[in-house]
Amino acid sequence: QNVKITDFGFCRMLSSSDERLTTPCGSLHFCAPEVLEAPEESYCGPPADVWSCGIILYGMLRGEHPFDGTTREETAALIREGDFDTYKLHNNEWDMIKNLLTLDPKERTGSGEILKHAYCQKGKSKDLPRVSVSLQMGCEEIDQEIVSRVVQLHANPGEQGKEVIVTSELVEKAMALSHEEMGVVLGDDMNTAEDKTEIEKLLDVRCTYEILLQEKMEGNKLASEELTGKAKIHKSIIWGDCYR
């Protein structure tokens, strides 16, 4: 069966496929070695994404990470070395992952070559049907009950650890901005500290809203402390960990 995996919690719109990036971001176990060298050295996004696909495929076939140290520093060192266990990998699987997890991004296989590889061609099934989905949340889709809860939660300094002035208008502004737009502001060194502080506030608000919406759909009601904790985890998943 076909399976499509997507994760746009943190993404960047590129002007060209060879645009150089300098923001070190992502979950460490999935980061390409060149990403670990940012911001001192720039890197290209597509080859780094190919590496991450190799990590995912390895995990699906082996049930573990190829580079997994006991500390973050050890894991980063293993990624930079690029050596991984090939036990229980068949020939096509091994060759495919070897191409995806090539240390030199210039030598790493491209996305077009991946689909032509023998591993992908074997037992190829029909493509999944294309389905159009809306990528934007319209204002009319915003749950006003949840908006009121977000305002109430952020109005209580004891629940958030610091006083944050949040209005219903600010919540709707947070929901109107995409994660990508927020990421551009936070990742651009040209933006002021005030701009980034405002985006951080909007991100906190949006994460709280999204957790509340999820819990409402599942019929749950979290205590304030549980909600704050889940919102923080949600925020960390969206943006990933930054490594310098």
UniProtKB/TrEMBL annotation:
Molecular function, one GO term: protein serine/threonine kinase activity
Swiss-Prot/TrEMBL GO biological process terms: intracellular signal transduction
Record domain Protein kinase: where: 1-120
Any one of the GO CC terms: cytoplasm
Keywords assigned: ATP-binding, Nucleotide-binding
Keyword ATP-binding annotated: yes
Organism superkingdom: Eukaryota
Gene3D superfamilies in alphabetical order: Transferase(Phosphotransferase) domain 1 (1.10.510.10)
PROSITE patterns: PROTEIN_KINASE_DOM
Protein name: Protein kinase domain-containing protein
